[in-house]
């Protein structure tokens, strides 16, 4: 393998020196021959799920509530958090990248194929026509998701950023406040950037809990599905594991009922780092 790489490098060096010599010897006014560029091969790998749905939100923004509501629809499969970005392709031999590259498949594309196959597996297993992934960390990799699925659809789930901070602090006893604020800022910034670049429907957690029928009808209209009243009675159905890493596991979720959102934070309690996004999202004039 090293010998082959050395040979390739030598050939490239010789070609460059030959081109430089030809340039130096070319008579004045004579244009060089146009070099024909060979386009790089693209995989064009077909997606088994061409238009999946992604909920882009911060942590502690009600994404698990939205997930179980959507999963209660007869045509929607919204499983627990899938954490697709943690699934990596690691070739076991040094030549594997070259072998796959000859097929137009980079490691990133191989990972996308793996992710796509997982979504397809869940759709087949559930016999649903729509698949939804609501992993909050997807807000941090929305560009890659858009690259993997150019026809993906998005639900932007917003919650007052300071409420997110309060919720995280209540969940993580002894957590560092500044660290939680920065973490929240990273999430909400990712969501807002995605909103600026991608088409989708925006839902506020506070509106979802205040009028779940209205908000779920909006979502169904966006997805091109008929609304089903059963969505509001999510506790009547099995939604898989309700535990850490899989999503929210609080008493509110386990109650099976949509619970009212806590009162919005007052203006003076909002961390300065979050102030701009609070205003952008319409929580503060």
Describe the structure concisely.
44% of the residues lie in helices and 7% in strands. With 285 residues, it is α/β, with parallel strands linked by helices.
Number of strands: 5
Q: Quaternary status of these chains?
A: single chain
- The overall pLDDT, averaged over residues, is 84
Shape, principal axes of CA atoms: globular
Low-confidence stretches: 1-43
If you compute it from the alpha carbons, what radius of gyration comes out, rounded to the nearest whole angstrom? 25 Å
Q: Strand order, main sheet: write it out.
A: 2-3-1-4-5
Distance between the termini: 63 Å
Q: Tell me the structural class.
A: alpha/beta
Helix content: 40-55%
Q: In this structure, how is the largest beta sheet organized?
A: 5 strands, parallel
Beta content: 5-15%
SSE pattern: HEHEHHEHEHHEHHHH
Q: What is the count of DSSP helices, taking H or I runs of 4+ residues? A: 11
